[in-house]
Amino acid sequence: MKKILIVFSLCAVFFNVLHAQNLLSKVPVNATMVIKYGNDNFAKSVPVKKLDSYKFIKENLFNMLGVDTLTSIQNIGINLEDDSYQYVSAEDSSLSFVTLMHVKNATQFAQFIKDSYGTKNKTEDKNGYQFLNISNNTYIGWNQTVATIVNTTYKNKESYYEYKNRTDTVVVATVATTEAISDSAVSEAAKAAADAAAKTAKTKVYKDGYKAPKKLDKGKKKPAAKKTTSKKVTPKKKTTPKKKVYDEGAVVVEASPYVETYEDSIENRKRDLWEQQQEMIANKIQQTNANKIIANVFTESQNTIGNSIGYKKVIEPEAHVSVWLNTDYLISQYQRYFTRDVYSMIKYAEPSLKKDTTDGFKTGLNIYFEKDKIRMQQKSFSENAAMENLGKQIMQSKQNLSLTNVVNPDNIGYFSMSINTEAMLNYYYTAIKKYMNSMSYMSEYSDAINVYIDLLQIMIDEKGIAELMPGNYMFVLHNMKTKMIDYIDYTYDSEYKSTEVKKSKKELSPNFTFVMDTRRVDFMEKLAKLPLKYAEKQHYNYKDKDGYYELAFDSTKYPVSSLYFIVKDGKALVTTSKEVVTNTITNKGFIIDEETKTSILNNNYSMKIDSKKLFEILESEASTTANKKSAAYMKNNMGNIQTESAFKDGMIQGTTTIKTNGTHANSLEFIFNTIETLNKIKDDEQIEESKKVD
Q1: 5 & 147 share domain
Q2: What is the mean pLDDT of residues 39-46?
Q3: Positive or negative, the Cα torsion across 338, 344, 348, 349?
Q4: Which of 591, 593, 571, 595 is nearest to 581 (CA)?
Q5: How far, in Å, CA of 205 to CA of 232, rounded?
Q6: Are 284 and 192 in contact (CB under 8 A)?
Q7: 543 φ, ψ (degrees, to nearest 5)
Q8: β-bridge mates for residue 572, sequence order
Q9: 78 part of a folded domain
Q10: Can you say whether the dihedral through the CA atoms of 175, 177, 183, 189 is positive or negative?
Q11: Which of 347, 369, 391 is the last residue of a domain?
């Protein structure tokens, strides 16, 4: 049962924990992801009492989780006004998602669990805490001050086909299966589970309709076969079979369906027993792993992520919500975890879930719910000087001023990117080496792998690629309009014969421009000219328009009427805007405000979206009343979105802001009010639809 995890995961996102002790000290150093929810969220921004007033929490969330809607959030025994933590770990062959919270009333909390989930398992008294098994992969531990929920999944299961090749008996190969499990901490538990499965397998059970063959009593002889007498038969002459003639009026008799044989029944039973054994082993390992995680929470001393430089460097303690990622470790561990079954099937050495000791990038996202905006601070840092220098080199680039000429003042949004392409390619080689060498079945050949990657680096001309694409890009969404598009639908008669029917529908027609700088204008011109040779033969409308190229579409069938291609003055450009084409040919451009220009030129990444314009268009295009109301609400309550990112203070840093409008007390209340309003719009639409049906 995963409901218990969901309820407290969602509660932890919004309802927070921690007074008597710092729960960060309970997060292990080998965690791949850590989420913190600060105590200011509800103590100041949205009081717990106000949460009880939201219908979507009381009816939608509680109803989904099977919790009594009359239950008050204030009476579940959890302190919702302090910090809480969640983390992900991929150790001991299991993927675990752990939630840490502070208990306000242990009796209330225990009663809440019992009333909501009605578990048949008894609470176990451990060393200083209570332990409860909610389901095969969900476990809870708590004492008077702290509660821990663990959802864990074991993936290191043996392949049935490998097992089948080792044995033909009904009894499962207990020893072989147990030996395949490398986790020393759980081997005894696995053996116990396997022994239980083996005992179950001793009784032969057959499916209905099959009987075991009778055994002869000892001492009795097998009855001799009776002799038969027969006349000698003269063999008939062979005749050539007549050629079969297909009769269209003949009745076709289908072949009898496949009937399961006695051997099939035995084989299916063997597989069922094997599956049961693997499930028992997995369940036992999951419980052992959860026991270990929960026990560590209630242990005084632990090697914690909070002492890590990679954590402290990118996480801001004052953030309302923070997310920490060990990027390299996360990718490699999850790859190993999710491919275990594959490796078992193809008989490769199963990859171990060992800690990646290399110093890759650690990423932190710090979120602040301010009065009129949501502010997100992103930081990426590596303790390794070489990796830090690579990051610095990648960001050593500045946007080309001429690319800003395509940004019109009244645009819906733009995205600007400026990176060092050559440095980025060199980083990829380093990342590939790290990834390949971290795989257990590849580590033995790390020297050979490094040589192959070095050879690849020699063969690929990074400088040549950087000449073609230095790394400056700009995308602008100038506008969007609705357009009627014709399309073909089909109707079918009683004999399933189709008839074409021409119909029309409204679709959004975007007006956009993508432009990049290049030092290889000659190559880009060849690329733009190449389709001219094949246009007529391939039946597409591509023409040279004296300074630019046009790919025209049937305006009645496609949202976009034309795409224009231009290569000029060190720029390669694709656009749907004829105005941009004219400006480029005549060396003109749009005039943008200084704030936007500064943001683009002073940052490696710059993005801005005019939410009001976007939702105005979506409102006009919406086909249902509910969608129109939702778009209108977002138009009036959500402000502009802006992102900026650059290399600062020895790390890659970025800031994203989402402005809010309306009468919300703060941006966190804006989130709750938005969810509540959009749910109400959806519910009202369903009520109206049900009235029409009645």
Answers
A1: yes
A2: 70
A3: positive
A4: 571
A5: 48
A6: yes
A7: -135, 150
A8: 516, 567
A9: yes
A10: negative
A11: 369
Backbone angles phi, psi at 321, to 5 degrees: -140, 135
Do 653 and 378 touch, CB atoms closer than 8 A? yes
Rounded to the nearest 5°, which phi and psi values hold at 512? -140, 170
Tokens read off for 305: 């992520």
- The per-residue DSSP string of 606-666 comes to EEEE-HHHHHHHHHHH--SHHHHHHHHHHHHHEEEEEEEEEEETTEEEEEEEEEE-SS-SS
- What's the token pair of residue 676? 């509540």
- Helix (H, G, I), strand (E, B), or coil: what is residue 444? helix
Give one word for 566, left, alpha or beta, with left for phi > 0 and alpha for psi -120 to 50: beta
Q: What CA–CA distance (Å, rounded) separates 525 from 517? A: 13
> Cα separation of 317 and 309, whole Å?
14
**What's the mean pLDDT when you consider all of the chain?**
79
Which two three-digit tokens encode residue 434? 């790290």
How many separate domains does the chain show?
2
Q: What is the 3-state secondary structure (H, E, C) of 506-544?
A: EEEEEEEEEEEECCCHHHHHHHHHHHHHCHHHHCCEEEE
Mean of pLDDT values over 173-185:
41
Sign of the torsion angle spanned by Cα atoms 134, 140, 145, 146: negative
**pLDDT tens digits, one per residue of 111-160:** 888 777 666 778 889 988 999 888 888 899 999 999 999 999 887 766 66
Q: What is the DSSP string of 112-151?
A: HHHHHH---SPPEE-SSSEEEEEETTEEEEE-SSEEEEEE
Do both 197 and 52 map to the same domain? yes
User: Which residue, of 334, 369, 404, is where some domain finishes?
Assistant: 369
Structure tokens at 94: 């299991």
Q: Is residue 21 part of a domain?
A: yes
- SS3 of 273-331: the string is HHHHHHHHHHHHHHHHHHHHHHHHHCCCCCCEHHHCHHHHCCCCCCCCEEEEEEHHHHH
What is the residue range of 538's domain? 472-660
Q: For residues 605 and 474, what is the distance between their CA atoms, to the nearest angstrom?
A: 10
Cα angle 445-447-451, degrees, rounded to a multiple of 5? 115
Q: Which residues pair with 512 in a beta bridge?
A: 477
Token pair, residue 339, equals 């491919």
Instruction: Kindly report the length of the chain.
Output: 694
Give the pairing type, strands 549-552 and 562-568: antiparallel
3-class DSSP state for residue 99?
strand
Q: Picking from 113-117, 452-456, 585-589, which range would have the lowest pLDDT averaged per residue?
A: 452-456
* 83 within 8 A of 18, measured Cβ to Cβ: yes
Given a contact cutoff of 8 angstroms between Cβ atoms, the answer to whether 282 and 157 are in contact is yes
The tens digit of pLDDT for each residue in 388-408 reads 888 899 999 999 999 999 999
Same domain, 361 and 489: no
Shared-domain flag, residues 137 and 19: yes
Token pair 């060396």 is at which residue?
587
Q: How far, in Å, CA of 124 to CA of 111, rounded?
A: 15
Give the Cα separation of 591 and 609 in Å (integer): 18
* 674 domain-assigned: no
Same domain (yes/no): 354, 489:
no
For the record, the structure tokens of 36 come out as: 């913190």
Q: What contacts 218, CB < 8 A, 6 or more positions away?
A: none
**Same domain, yes or no: 145 and 283:** yes
Q: DSSP class of residue 102?
A: E
Buried b (16+ CB within 10 A) or exposed e, 403-427: bbbbbbeebbbbbbbbbbbbbbbbb
Round to whole Å and give the CA distance between 311 and 324: 7
Average pLDDT over residues 624-630: 93
Residues 654 and 516 in one domain: yes
Do residues 113 and 119 make contact, with C-beta atoms less than 8 angstroms apart? yes
Residue 64 belongs to a domain: yes
CB 480 within 8 A of CB 511: yes
